[in-house]
Amino acid sequence: MPCPGTGLALSADPPTSQLTPREKRPSACPECGCGHITKFGFYRWQDGTRRQRYQCHGCGITFCAHTGTPLHYIKKRAEWHQQAEGLGLGLSVRKMARALKVTPATAFRWRHGVIRQLRLRPRAALGSSVAVTEAYVPYSEKGSRTTDGPGARCRIPLRRYRRFIDGKPSRVLLLSNDRQQAAVVVDRGQPTVAAIQASLASLVKPGAELRALGHVQLTDACRRLRATFQHGWHQSVARVQWLHRHLHNWLRRFHGVATKYLERYLVWHSRVFRAGARRPVRVGRRMLELASLPAPAGQRAG
Ligand SMILES: [Zn+2]
Hints:
The protein contains nine helices and eight strands. The radius of gyration is 22 Å and the shape is globular. The strands form two sheets. It has a five-stranded mixed beta sheet with strand order 6-5-4-7-8, sandwiched between helices. It has a three-stranded antiparallel beta sheet with strand order 1-2-3, with no helix packed on it. Helix 3 (93-100) crosses helix 4 (104-119), helix 4 (104-119) packs across helix 9 and helix 5 (193-203) packs across helix 6 (216-224). Strand 7, helix 6 and strand 8 form a beta-alpha-beta unit. It has helices at residues 16-19, 77-89, 93-100, 104-119, 193-203, 216-224, 235-252, 262-275, 280-291; strands at residues 37-44, 50-56, 62-63, 129-137, 170-176, 181-188, 209-213, 228-229. It is an alpha/beta fold and 302 residues long. The two termini are 37 Å apart. Zinc ion is lined by residues 29, 31-32, 34, 56, 58-59, 61.
């Protein structure tokens, strides 16, 4: 039955397999990364189900398979899994909250739990023929209780602003070849050639052909890389232009994205873009599935 105000047909009873997925034995301690772990009794949830507990022999902590993931401490597991379709469709926080019958604060926390975890997953570098372009996303402190920007009131009397932020937009590099896409925030304002080069180096395989659409700094950075720089039209150029338009239109629904969360939204957008608009539920379920895995070793959610 469609949820009022959202048009979502959220299932009231998600499959049991989604609520209690088979837990894999963790390969390492989520705290110290030590691989010497043993079973250590059980945790019992409020609904009576048991979860295997483990102990680390390196640091001594006990944990379960979901420790260190957004699923840890989630009590409303059914609603958590129902957010899959909303994630695939890119619903706003308030629409998602109405659909799931949770508060906007909970919907926000769940969303960011998922996309923060996805950002930690390793990304494959792009090879073959890669087109690069740049996008600008306006500076925003959306949702902040205190702001450093213009118009911010200061607690100290006689000082209207704590600090004046330049408010420069974030510069985002967008890359695409025939099959893969990538997006990364370089800097705010006008980044240097070295900064662009450093960002590109982590996203492009050595020996790839590059085609740049943008300012001279972008072209210079491409030339400095050990990649072949090409001119002219290619299928990847059309695809990166489509990626640019899609990102621009997709971000509009949020009426501004806080600059500090922009990287997370880019990861979310890349998942949606890759799948197209046909299978929002599948995209959302895949996002939840990846987010429920422990973060890669050495990565901490931030
Ligand atoms: Zn440990």
